[in-house]
Request: fold
Amino acid sequence: MSEVKKVATRQSYGEALVELGKEHENLVVLDADLAAATQTGKFKAVFPERHIDCGIAECNMMSIAAGIASTGKVPFASTFAMFAAGRAFEQVRNSIGYPHLNVKIGATHAGISVGEDGASHQCNEDIALMRTIPGMTIINPSDDIEAKAAVKAAYEMDGPVYLRFGRLAVPVINDNPDYKFEIGKGVTLKEGTDVAIIATGLCVNSALEAAEKLAADGISAEVINIHTIKPLDEEIVLAAAKKCGKVVTVEEHSVIGGLGSAVCDVLSEKAPTPVKKIGMYDKFGESGPAVALLAKYKLDGQGVYEQVKEYLA
Amino acid sequence: MNTLELQKMAVEVRKGIVSAVHAAKAGHPGGSLSAADVFTYLYFEEMNIDPENPKDPNRDRFVLSKGHTAPGLYSALAHRGYFPVEDLLTLRHLGSHLQGHPCVQHTPGIDMSSGSLGQGISAAVGMALSAKLSNDDYRVYTLLGDGEIQEGQVWEAAMFAGHRKLDNLVVIVDNNNLQIDGAISDVCSPYPIDKKFEAFNFHVINVADGNDMEQLAAAFAEARATKGAPSAIVMKTLKGKGVSFMENKAGWHGKAPNDEEYAIAMEDLKKVGDALCQK
Reply:
C-alpha cells in the first residue's frame, strides 16, 4: 500500500489545462497571482498569450472571466477556494451565475488539507456557497484521474462550473480501465449492505480505507464516490439508502451545506433515512501538516472508520 | 444622425424613461435622465451595432455598469428598434423582459447582466481583453455612476485595463454628483475623478457638459483616436435632466413620479422637443 501513487489534484488541473489548451484555441486561463500554487503556471509556460494574470484582485478576475465568456471564449478562472467561492462569491453569483455564463472556476487549496497556512486559507464553506447559486455545477474530484476527466468534462459542457481541487498529494484510486467520468453520475466503488458511505474529494480514499477496516469487524459498507455535488446523482443516493438503511457522508468541508446536506435534502424528501454527516463540525481549521490535520479532524481512513463505528454502535 | 436629430431622439428617450418608471411605479429616473444623452449618442451614432442581429460577434459592446439606470438603456434600445417602444410600459412588471436591472438572457440588445455596482466595468474589461486576444476590432463601452466608483472593484478593473493598454475600451463616468444619500462629495468623495483614472494609466477626457451632443461627439472621437491606453470620459451631467422638478435632486434617484408629476414631466419634455422642432 505504501507504493501507491499520489498526486495533488491541483497538479492534475494544471496538466489538464495544458492538454485542453492544445486542442482548443478558445480556452483562456486566468489567475490572481497564484500561478505556481494553482499550477496554471504549467499552462502559462506553453501558452503565455492565453494566460491572464489579473494580479491580486479575485473579484475583478471573476467578472473579467464573465466578460470573456460572453464573447465565446472559455475562461478557467483560478485561485484558492477561499477567494474563488468566498471573497468573490457575489461576483460569481451576479457576473457568472445570473447570466449563466460559460465560466469554469478552478478553485484549488480547498479544505483543511491546505495545511500549514492555517484557517484563514482553509476553505470549508465553498461547496455550501456554490450550491446556492442556480445553475452552478460543482465537481469535487477524488484523485488525479478524476480531476483531469473533470476539467475536460467541464470544458465540454456549456455553463458555469465550480471545480474543487486540493493542495495535498492524494492516492490515485481510479486507475482502472473501466473508469468513466460523467458529470452528475456517482460511482459505486464498493458494494455493501450495512451502511452506505457517501464521500467526495480526498475523503473518497478515506472512505475506502474505512470500509476495509469495517469489513475486518464484520461490517459491510458500501462506498460511493460523489464527484459531482451539484447536480447530485439522486438515484445512486436513494438506492444506497434503501439498500443499507443507514447513510454516512464524508467530506473535507463543513457539515453545514456541503455533500452531507445535499444528501439529506434528497433523502428527507424522498426516502427518510438516518444520516451521519462526517466533516468539519462547525469549526475553523488550524496550522499543521495536512496529513496530521486530516487525522486530528478524523477525516482520514482511521478517523472515518472510528466515526462510522461509533455511529453504528 | 446629425446633432439636431440626436437631440430630438434624446427627448424621445427621456419620454420613454419617464413613462416606463411611471408605469412601473418604481425605478431610477434621476440617473437614467442624466445619461439619456450618452445612451442616445452611443446607440444612434457611436456604436457599430445592428438591432436585427443583436448577437453579432463583431458588434461593439455596451455594459451598463450602473445597472439601476436600466430605464435609460431600455428606452434607447427600444427607440433603436431592438424591441417595441410599448414594451417600456412593462418595466419591472411580472413576466416582462424588462427586469429592474439589465439581464442578458431576457432583453434583446443587452450585452451583460448588471446591477451589482462595480462588476460591469470588469465584465467590459473582459470583453475588451477578449477582442485583443483574438485580434477582433470591436470596441467596448461601459457607463459607471460617480457614486459607483466608490466600489473598490472599479479600481481593480481600472488597474487591469490600464496595465493591459486596452485602447478598445471606453469607460464613461456619469458625474451628476448625486448618490442616494446625497452629494458624492459629502457622502464619500471620489474626487478628483479624472486624476484617479490618469493614475491608472487611462487617457482621460473631461466633458464639461455631458448633456451636450456636440461635446459628447468630440469626446468619443478623441477616445476612438486614442491608441495604447484605455479612455475614460468623465462627463459632468445634471441628474434628472429635462424634468424640471427632478433636476439636481438626490430624492429622484430611485423614485417614480405619481400621475400628476408624470403629466408635468411629459409636458416639460414636450416643450424641449417642440423647441428643437423650431430649429
Chain B is about 45% helix and 10% strand. The domain at 3-277 of chain B is CATH 3.40.50.970 (Rossmann fold).
